Amino acid sequence: MDILLIAGMWLTAPVWQETADHLARQGHRAVPIRLPGQDDGDVAATLADQVAAVLGEVDRAARPLVVGHSAASGLAWLVADARPDAIAGVAMVGGFPPADGATYFDAFPARDGVVPFPGWERFDGPDTADLDRASRTRLESLTVPVPSGVTDATVRLRDERRHRVPVTLVCPEYSPDDARSWIEAGHLPEPSRAEDVRYADLATGHWPMISAPDRLAVAIAGIAERR
Fold it and tell me: What does the longest C-alpha to C-alpha distance in the chain come to?
């Protein structure tokens, strides 16, 4: 199956390389997406530019599985909204999509038109428990500031057919039971409206493509094969 891999905040496409290689060995065509504003240094890039970049890959693929990491779970869901009949499903790794009318990513303020990586102190705890010093250094080397035209954009979801797209919540630093409880409590409005939601437990930190790329690939391949 064609599998499109979308990196989350501050990350560039090469962060997926090991996972993509594992997926290729399992017979899948994995494509790490190059995102405007993250992979090309364009500080004027917008969320609409990123959506267009992923849609271009969707249109070149054969009914792909779209995988979004962290904040890019929202980007993957925008793609599902734009092409609900053209994709096999969405996998959200360590993240959840914003609701219609919400800001794409408002966890950290922009400075001089970009949101820089805030450093490791902000992620102490389960997010980073499985990252040693070398892994943190490698991950940090792949980080870039993200343009505020991406982070400050208002999310617009228009096609109700997105709720028919199969969704798998891949749970790294939290458990499937945690995710289910957040849905039941009404904290995740978009997943709560999806008609087909499944869960995959990784039991890693927030960046499994660095700490456990083989296990992440097995999880993604399992989702692809079920879809």
Answer: 44
- Of 20, 55, 21, 53, which is closest to residue 36 (Cα–Cα)? 53
pLDDT (tens digit, 9 = 90+) per residue, 202-221?
999 999 999 999 999 999 99
Domain count along the chain: 1
pLDDT of residue 54: 98
Q: At what angle do helices 72-82 and 47-60 cross, to 10 degrees?
A: 60
Q: Are strands 65-69 and 146-147 parallel, antiparallel or unpaired?
A: unpaired
Alpha-carbon distance 176 to 163, whole Å?
20
Q: What is the pTM of this model?
A: 0.97
Residue 140 CA neighbour count, 13 Å, CB half: 14
* CATH number of the structural domain spanning residue 193: 3.40.50.1820
**What's the rounded Cα separation, in Å, for the pair 24 and 173?**
26
Domain membership of residue 121 as a residue range: 2-226
Q: What is the pLDDT of residues 108-142, one digit of tens each?
A: 999 999 999 999 999 999 999 999 999 999 999 99
